[in-house]
Amino acid sequence: MFNDLVNLGLSPRKTRSVKITESMPNKCFRHYLRGYFDGDGCVNICTYKRKNRKSPTYYHDSAYRLWFAKYNSLNLYKFMYNHIGSELYLARKKKIFEKYMGA
Prior knowledge:
The chain is mainly α and 103 residues long.
């Protein structure tokens, strides 16, 4: 499995080097995203006021962050978890997402 992931363009010790490659099949992207979230993601609720927010991505405190409104966050949740077996995600991360999203 390790060699398969390397062949897709992933690398060990991913800090500051994770890249999504064009060789990743579209059907695998939601699984990749869910795995990335399980390994290094979090969900927060906040009131965020930033002018000219054209992109949900920005760099802060040595990390890239994604900011979404509730509707888009629910879509992200559905994209990552709909029709997925319970052995394919970290239950504690999914529960935190559900707590905040009311999913």
